[in-house]
């Protein structure tokens, strides 16, 4: 039972790494500033600076 859990945890590492890379690439491909994308219609210069 313990070896099964260990194998599952070890196999989850590349999956999590892959998901992280994919999300990073998607975020870098989105045009504009990430802070502006997060804030949406509340993206005043003051709010962007705070974020």
Overview of this protein structure:
- The mean pLDDT is 85.
- It is built from 3 helices and no strands.
- It has 51 residues and is an all-alpha fold.
- The N and C termini lie far apart (46 Å).
- It has helices at 2-29, 34-39, 45-50.
List keywords for this structure.
3 helices; 78% helix; single chain
Architecture blueprint of SSEs:
Elements: H1 2-29, H2 34-39, H3 45-50
Number of beta-strand segments: 0
Query: Would you identify the regions where 5 or more consecutive residues have pLDDT less than 50?
Result: none
| Cα distance spanning the termini | 46 Å
Mean pLDDT: 85
Tell me the strand percentage band. Answer: under 5%
Write down the overall geometry: elongated
Q: Rounded to an integer, what's the Rg over CA atoms?
A: 18 Å
Order of helices and strands: HHH
Structural class from helices and strands? Answer: mainly alpha
Q: How many helices?
A: 3
The largest β sheet comes out as:
none
Could you give a quick summary of the protein structure above?
By secondary structure, the protein is mainly alpha-helical.
């Amino acid at each position: 039972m313990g070896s099964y859990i260990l194998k599952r945890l070890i196999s989850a590492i590349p999956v999590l790494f892959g998901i992280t890379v994919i999300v990073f690439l998607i975020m870098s491909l989105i045009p504009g500033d990430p802070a502006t994308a997060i804030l949406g219609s509340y993206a005043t210069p003051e709010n962007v600076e705070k974020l």
